[in-house]
Design brief:
Layout (H helix, E strand, L loop, with lengths): L2 H17 L23 H8 L3 H8 L8 H10 L4 H15 L15 H9 L5 E4 L5 E4 L1 H5 L14 H7 L3 H4 E2 L1 H16 L6 H13 L1 H9 L7 E8 L3 E11 L7 E6 L5 H8 L31 H4 L1
Antiparallel strand pairs: 1-2, 1-6, 3-4, 4-5, 5-6
């Protein structure tokens, strides 16, 4: 498929997924009598709300129209009740489809610079790690490794945080609540994937998870989008007990999307005591990788997801 067609198709997928999540009553339309076979809004309803012809909207959704004007994109965003990251993603996909953005992001680089490895060590005893654009764990300091028990039993090329959340038995019990954590993780993966949906690393990961996890398949089809820059996570850790940590996410320049994630806790709290045990001799380290140390990916507020998310997850 040509690049322009692929980008137009991705815009169409996004419009269709978001249309399915808006109920007629949400936008002041009558539900009408009888059973609606279409989840959410019909194409003609969304076209009318956005002030475009049904034929034009159908061509947009099917990837045949790839040059919507900014005014049309704005109208569609308002009609779909998009906010924040979801609204920005609609504009980004429209820009990509039209060719107004000519370059996709640089390919992911899985080599972690020595200066970054030194930073990981310098922030101890805080748990910290580096992930690729698509959440593959590339490096971590010792407490960062111990934060994710069981992950290091997998081969290096399988150590992906999203895979860990859905397919590892510890990953399914470590985060509290698990349902909210995985929904935000998938929304973040959608956000970073939108510009290059055919990336081989991404398609292999998504293909595996769709086949092996019905929860992932359902969340991926929702097309919720959420960029993450920090927040809070609660853990039920099998070695150091429950703890709630805040984290910051730092983009690493010239790496094709690598991020460094650092956790911390308020001084003098039980959360800090539990966290510090991850760096103590009393917490047995997970088996260290043969080349680099390693790590994970994170969320943003549930309010950034679609209004129907809470009941769905």
């Amino acid at each position: 498929m040509a690049a322009a067609d692929a980008r137009g198709t991705e815009l169409g997928r996004y419009l269709k997924a978001r249309r399915a999540q808006v109920r007629p009553e949400d936008v002041g339309l009558p539900v009408g009598a009888g059973l609606r076979r279409t989840p959410g809004l019909r194409r003609e309803e969304l076209a009318a709300l956005a002030g475009v012809s049904v034929d034009y909207y159908i061509r947009l959704e099917r990837g045949r129209e790839t040059n919507p004007s900014p005014a049309v994109v704005d109208a569609l965003g308002r009609a779909l009740r998009l906010r924040g990251d979801a609204y920005e993603r609609l504009h980004e996909l429209a820009e990509l489809a039209s060719g107004r953005i000519g370059e996709l992001p640089a390919a992911s680089d899985h080599t972690v610079r020595d200066s970054v490895l030194r930073m990981l060590e310098s922030v101890r005893p805080l748990p910290a790690y580096v992930v690729s654009r698509y959440n593959r764990i590339l490096a971590a300091n010792p407490p960062g490794r111990r934060l994710l028990p069981g992950l290091w039993d997998w081969p290096q090329d399988q150590r992906n945080l999203t895979r860990y959340l859905f397919l590892h038995p510890v990953g399914r019990t470590l985060y509290q609540p698990w349902e909210e954590t995985v929904a935000l993780s998938v929304a973040h993966l959608r956000a970073v994937a939108g510009a290059d949906p055919d990336d081989p690393e991404l398609t292999a990961l998504v293909g595996e998870l769709v086949l092996k996890s019905t929860e992932f398949a359902r969340l991926w089809e929702r097309y919720d989008v959420c960029e993450r820059g920090g927040g809070q996570k609660s853990f039920r850790h099998p070695k150091v007990g429950p703890m709630t940590l805040t984290y910051e996410v730092m983009q690493l320049a010239r790496t094709g999307g690598q991020r460094m994630v650092v956790y911390q806790a308020a001084p003098g709290t039980p959360d800090e005591t539990a966290m510090l045990r991850l760096d103590s001799a009393g917490a047995r380290p997970e088996s260290a990788p043969s080349d680099h140390p390693e790590p994970a990916a994170e969320p943003c507020p549930a309010s950034m997801l679609s209004p129907a998310h809470a009941s769905a997850s």
